[in-house]
Amino acid sequence: MSDLDKLDRAILGALQADGRMPVARLAETVGLSETPCARRLKRLEQAGYIDRYRAVLSRRALGYGVVGFVSVRFAVHDRALADRFEREVCAIERIVSCHNISGTADYILQIVARDLDDYGTFMRDQLRSLPGVTSVESALSLREVKADGGVPLS
């Protein structure tokens, strides 16, 4: 990140807050004219600082009232088994994030469900039957305090 100057960071921060911002407004926001701003944006995209653009959907508006964080443990640590588990997890839409972690668990998953019954059914019928899973431990979110705000740019 050392090759990013103050204007690059400002562009990234503005886009992180609003990925649909037109270049004209982006340029105005960061204090550049449109052409140099567009060039910088293209350079930042090509250099890989911007992975993709997307809309952040409201899980509540879409009917997902429950968020669970699930620690998943394996009894056998086999690379092929882990690869199968990861492929299957990536194919399940309601698993919104999956991290291979250190500590007592092997993975931590963030899962959305419509309600507690839906969550329980998903745990029983899908999650516990994934390859390699020998135990799961859930923690349900009571209230979201901070959503994914992006990465720090300082």
Automatic annotation (TrEMBL):
Gene Ontology process terms (BP): regulation of DNA-templated transcription; response to amino acid
Domain spans labelled HTH asnC-type: 4-65
SUPFAM superfamilies with a match to the protein in the record: Dimeric alpha+beta barrel, Winged helix' DNA-binding domain
Entry keyword annotation includes Glycoprotein: no
Keyword Membrane in annotation: no
Pfam family, one: AsnC_trans_reg
Ranges in coiled-coil conformation: none
GO cellular component, one term: cytosol
Alphabetical keyword list: DNA-binding, Transcription, Transcription regulation
GO molecular function: sequence-specific DNA binding
Superkingdom per UniProt: Bacteria
InterPro entries per UniProt: ArsR-like_HTH (IPR011991), AsnC-type_HTH_dom (IPR000485), Dimeric_a/b-barrel (IPR011008), Tscrpt_reg_AsnC-like (IPR019888), Tscrpt_reg_AsnC/Lrp_C (IPR019887), WH-like_DNA-bd_sf (IPR036388), WH_DNA-bd_sf (IPR036390)
PANTHER family linked to this entry: LEUCINE-RESPONSIVE REGULATORY PROTEIN, TRANSCRIPTIONAL REGULATOR AZLB
Name of the protein this chain belongs to: AsnC family transcriptional regulator
Biological source species: Paraburkholderia acidisoli
